[in-house]
Amino acid sequence: MSHDAPHAQPHAHEPQDHAPQTVRIGGHDVPVVTANTVVVGTGSAGFCAADRLWEFGQGDLVMVADKIGAGASRNAGSDKQTYYKMTLSGGDGDSVREMAQTLHSGGAMDGDNALAEAALSARGFLRLCELGVPFPQNRYGEFIGYKTDHDPRRRATSVGPYTSRSMVEQLEKKVARNGTRVFDDCRVVDVLTHPGADGPEVAGLLALRTDVPHDGAESPFLLFRCANLVYATGGPAGLYATRVFPNGQWGASGAAYRAGVHGKNLTEWQFGLASTKPRWNVSGTYMQVLPRFVSTDADGGDERDFLTDAIPDYGRQLSLIFLKGYQWPFDIRKALDGSSLIDLLVYQETVLRGRRVFLDFRRNPVRDELDPSALSPEAFDYLDRAGVLFGTPIERLRRMNAPAYEFYLNKNPYVDLERELLEVDVCAQHNNGGLQVDAWWQSNVTGFFPVGEAGGAHGVYRPGGAALNSGQVGATRAAQFIAATRGHAPLDVDEFAAVAAPVLSAARGLVERATARTAAGEPDNTGELLRAVGELMSAKAGPVRSAESLHEALVQVHEWLSGYEDLVAADAGSRRAVNRTFLVRDILTTAYVYLSAMADYLDHGGRSRGSVLYTDAAGSLPRVGHGPDAERELDLPEVFRFRLDGGALDGEVQEAAWRPPGDAGPDGDIPDDGVGGRATSWAPGGLAREPKDQAGHALFRWRPVRPIPEDDDFFENVWRDYREHKNIY
Q1: CA dist., res. 197 & res. 346, Å (int)
Q2: What is the distance between the alpha carbons of residues 76 and 246, in angstroms, rounded to a whole number?
Q3: Which of 92, 120, 219, 705 has a CA positioned 20 to 30 A from the CA of residue 616?
Q4: What is the pLDDT of residue 15?
Q5: Based on the number of CB atoms within 10 Å of its own CB, is 524 exposed (0-12), middle (13-18) or buried (19 or more)?
């Protein structure tokens, strides 16, 4: 069936009928929703994609959500959550090209994505302003900015702790006004594809309706027949137990890998200090007011000022705590003798020693009274200008940033920093890598567009707030491409039924076997498996990794995944348990691919970079960092010995693919996806496997980064092409 020529679509403003229609598929009556495009996810990127599609004239769309109120966009933030865009104030020089170079210089980031993120940053930002997001401006209309991490200009802005929530709320209102239908309570089970002219192409989506009881009265499955999927599911948050991602965000990357979508830069995560109850980044003012770090045993006893063991100098300890305010993410380049040493010391207490770590805002570090004269000039200057060189951390916090104190009073669980300790850890915060995207945020699977954190648009480092801009840009680019080139109808009903039948049958079979085990007396193990994989990943593949720890984790995940159909047991009377049957499979698939990618990275010569320490016996331990013994190594565990990558692999991108058992041999025979460049051949990574290994095959290749495209700024040429096809190709 040819999909080359788009057919006329109803304009977005015309009402669309997206009611499910019952279709007989594989001997079962199943509701099927038909639309040109399905947007999966209701965060800031998903709502942006839906609204842009409608604005561009493609109103034949629906949205799908696991839980509309869940997700990072709506529930995550920090004391001042940053949005990154091109400079829109003052006399500072800036340009699209310069911003693109800033993004591209983060290492392993493709230049076409960097250029698009820079070029559309003002458009996306101003669109949010027009919708009602209250970004601050001066009396003349300039949107004043500030510098964030990895930012040579003053491109950052914020509306406070909940910048992304404000974005979601305004975008959601707009999508509601558009009349776009949202299907809530849907767990992604599988992405459906069919053979296209250039490889696999989107055919639809299989979802589990988590609001439908499994009593046979109504189908718990819902199918979507579509030509395009905009995948705004968020990052694979469920991989890590120790995470700042909000409860209810899990991601759905495993379904994408199962459908043949490739991954990119999967090794690159961002970790940082965050409170665990509630989950929230403790960056900015929380660190700048100089709280006391304390650890206890598991029961809250045996309190220790543990930072002093490695940082005995009073002034240096205070200054490093201060720097964590705007050097918040764990950065391995600052671990040798800088502020990220604090992250490692927290990790040592929680992961290696099994203790708990807290911030104490009631007392000053080391001494009862603050001695400002011991501070570094940078810290002294800042706190002096803020007028807080006095008192206790909580007094300084309430003076500098009262909303940061009040925030914890309004969270669940409630924490009064004036009276209570705040438990923290080094938490997974963002996946810079993800599913592969091209310059239009389309993956190697035609019609599949990963946007937001699901898409791997970033490199090793990125400026603070760049992810929010990237989500808006990727959603806009995907919508432009779909509206201009992919307006054709989905597969006809019979063809779709033929594609969906085996996938639906496999999903039904998995549920039947899992529930039969509990009916036979086995306990439901879905919750235990979900917890176990997260704890394993945090312990073995978090901010500190080694070849040995990755191998241990990979062996265990392989065991779970390869035997999953005979392992999982779910209570048929619990919709949550049946939901977890697919959720755990998704997370295990993702963990298998990610762990294999980490092992392949080391095999490729990778060393410590970004937000990850890879243990290296030939490396160095963190150093004293000051005084006559500045170069002396600290007395720390050997797992903290490392060598920096030094940018050696900044010019390369690791791509990942998963293939089902028997579908790819040792030669990794996978069709070319048109990324260009001198890519290596696909090859297995991680564990040695048999061709019919039931865990499937994780395959990898390395290619050069795509450069920033050359300037094409002769107006007459651009205008001529724009009149012909809007330069969308």
Answers
A1: 52
A2: 6
A3: 705
A4: 62
A5: buried
Q: What are phi and psi of 635, to 5 degrees?
A: -80, 85
Contact 574, 561 (CB under 8 A): no
**pLDDT value, residue 9:** 47
Give the per-residue pLDDT at 426: 98
Largest CA distance in the chain: 79
Q: How far is the C-alpha of 146 from the C-alpha of 687, rounded, in Å?
A: 46
- pLDDT mean over 368-380: 97
Q: Is 367 exposed, middle or buried (0-12, 13-18, 19+ CB in 10 A)?
A: exposed
More confident residue, 661 or 583: 583
CA distances from 635 to 87, 620, 624, 644 (A): 45, 11, 9, 20
Describe the chain by its helix, strand, coil percentages, rounded to 5.
Answer: 35, 20, 45
In the block, tokens 């865990």 appear at 695
Residue 30 has a CB neighbour count (10 Å cut-off) of 22
CA distance 708 to 330: 28
The label of the residue with tokens 């954190």 reads 453
What's the one-letter identity of residue 433? G
Strands 269-276 and 263-264, bridge-based pairing: unpaired
**Exposure letters 410-440 (e unless 16+ CB within 10 A, then b):** eeeeebebeeebbbbbbbbbbbbbbbbbbbb
pLDDT score of 572 more than 50:
yes
List the structure tokens of 180: 């776009």
In angstroms, rounded to a whole number, what is the distance separating the alpha carbons of residues 658 and 268? 18
User: Hey, what are 142's tokens?
Assistant: 């300039």
Confidence of residue 666 (pLDDT cuts 50, 70, 90): very low
pLDDT (0 to 100) of residue 713: 83
Determine the residue type at 505: S
When pLDDT is cut at 50, 70 and 90, the band that residue 139 belongs to is very high
Q: What is the DSSP letter of 167?
A: H
User: How far, in Å, are 189, 238, 528 from residue 584 at the CA level?
Assistant: 11, 9, 10
User: 7 falls in which pLDDT band (50, 70, 90)?
Assistant: very low
Q: List the single range of 472-476, 597-601, 711-715 with lowest mean pLDDT.
A: 711-715
Q: Is the pTM of this model over 0.85?
A: yes
Sheet strands (E) in 421-546: 422-431, 434-435, 448-450, 544-545
CA angle 293, 297, 299 (to 5 degrees): 115
- For range 409-437, the mean pLDDT: 95
The tokens of 526 are what?
């879905």
pLDDT for 8: 40
Q: Are 341 and 622 in contact (CB under 8 A)?
A: yes
DSSP string, 374-414: GS-HHHHHHHHHTT--SS-HHHHHHHH-HHHHHHHHTSSS-
pLDDT, mean over the chain: 94
